[in-house]
Write a structure and sequence with these properties.
single chain; mainly alpha; about 50% helix; about 5% strand
């Protein structure tokens, strides 16, 4: 068996698997139901330090959630993560946004 064959597809540093992408969408969709309410409360508590709007803060949380999923439980399917980690002090500059359909 080819050592580059994982998760149902040949992978390389720039080619993430389809199976991993499907798992990422499903897990992320479930986690967004928790992330959005908890993140809204966290935003209310941290807005003096972050200076980020609610949408930018939630986008920052979701971006980092995707990064963590790709670097932990889905790591075999994502040899190269599709997003980069964003530091807290850069949360106001986050361009990633959550859309309504992402939760379903």
């Amino acid at each position: 068996m080819n050592p580059d064959y994982r998760w149902g597809r040949f992978t390389s540093a720039s080619d993430n698997s389809i199976t991993g992408g499907i798992l990422l969408v499903l897990i992320r969709g479930l986690l967004l139901w928790v992330l959005i309410p908890v993140g809204s409360v966290a935003w209310a508590l941290t807005v003096p330090w972050s200076r980020a709007s609610l949408t930018a803060f939630l986008g920052w949380l979701d971006n980092n959630q995707i990064f963590l999923l790709q670097r932990t439980i889905l790591r075999p399917a994502f040899p190269s993560p599709s997003v980069q980690w964003i530091r807290f002090k850069d949360a106001a500059d986050a361009t990633h946004r959550i859309r309504f359909g992402d939760m379903f």
